[in-house]
Sequence to fold (389 residues):
Amino acid sequence: MKVLSDFIHLHFTFQDFLPSEWNGLVPEDSVFQEWEFLSTLEDTGCIGRNDDWKIHILAYKKDGALVGAFPFYLRLDSYGEYIFDFEWANAFHRAGIPYYPKFTAAVPFTPVTGSRVLVSQSLPKEEQDFITKQLLTKYIELGETLNVSSSHILFCKEDEVRLGIDVGFVPRLTHQYHWMNKGYETFEDFLSCLVKERRKTIRQERKKVEALGLDIQTLTGDRIEAEHARIFYQFYSDTHSRKWGQPYLNFAFFSQIFQSMKHRIHLVLASKKDGTPVGGSFNFFRGDYLFGRYWGALEQIPNLHFECCYYQLIDFAIERKMKRVEAGAQGEHKFLRGYEAVPMHSLHHIYNESGSKAIYQYLEREIKHEAKNISIYNSHSPLKALRNT
Fold:
């Protein structure tokens, strides 16, 4: 730990904090910032045990109590971030300027919106904003001191964008596709809000999966057993190796997280009649929010992906009267199944003057383009209400 000011200390491990004090800062819709998730990434060597994803945490204490925390990472590449800056790195390289190392504030390997600066919700709003600005300012200062090329905050909330701009960050806009609960009582109620051709397609997809005779279970809480960690790691590693190469997560992560966070985990498991697992999805939920994360299948079964990753999650969200289902990056299949385009925000601070000028000009143009795209996408949505707005 390093003391940076009377209130702000710099830490290099999540083990410096008690789970209760850390989780007391985490809002309901930011499950991946919970201590158990982040510390499991560290404990199992997915982050923090080499020179990449090197853990840094700015902690703000008031009268000895933790009232603010801002985790971020020293990065040597941009993989696992999902807000892509590879072209920026290439431009720096062509100009003979190093782009790495850089700072990134994000949940590793997790393209999900959430609070990046964690501040006690019991404080007055003005004090929360003050602490947030103090931590963001210290983040920029620390990056300059350590001679990184840039400092980034990915998948942050709109309030953080406003405060980040105030202290010197420049915003970026991208988009994802999320399912929003409009007060649906049943899945058929949801389908009734879609245009006719999409209703028909979704019903056919579900009937085809049903006709296969698979046993599809939704597992949460104490229904989750140690064996499920092995099954879902197999799904994850098989899919990741086929599509993206080396998996980010290891079996130790799955084994530990299935114990420490089973109260947050939502599994959809499809098996044959003899009990042989064939595919499924691994998701997290907290309060009114459900987050689709990992999908895998050991056999190519048509429409099983849609059933396990979209329809079962929508069923669960409707049953629990949740507000939103987020299913991560990429989106055409989601969009066609009633997920709507929503803005994703990030913040960027480039220390090199010539490099920052070019990137900031690009971001200004990109924001206008993305905002227009989001509007156009939703105007062609299968959701009838969005088409009419």
Q: What stands out?
A: Residues 177 and 341 are 5 Å apart (CA to CA). Residues 353-379 form the longest helix (27 residues). The radius of gyration is 22 Å.
